[in-house]
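Quick illustration, no need to memorize.
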Amino acid sequence: MFKHILIATDGSEVANKAVSAGLKLAKKLAARVVVVTASEPLRATVSAETIAANFPAAYEKASKEEAEKVLVEVRGEARSIGLECETLYVVNFPAEAIIETAKANACDLIVMGSHGRRGIARLLLGSQATKVVTFSSVPVLIYR
């Protein structure tokens, strides 16, 4: 059925649940796994007057360090169930990073968590999960 699964995570509680479910599914299906986490690029609209000269470098360093913590945990969880997984850190807006990574790795399923908003908040604030479901060319499994 599914042979190459992309699991997206931001390290949040619901994302961690999606990671666990995605890894177990991959193990059951004997599928390959790539796990991706993304950091948004520092917005170009931030004015020089509002940030210190070294802020962009500090932001990038902190983002990379946080992503590595998330990915180390995922690799450990995968190993604990006897599954190998590739992990990637991408600097891009999350939905775009997820979709592009799935395409680049020929993934045939995306597994990710929902942020859990309901009602009008979901409509007003939008969601990375909604964007991925809308624009993905492969099936998307949303874990709540």
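The chain is about 50% helix and 20% strand.
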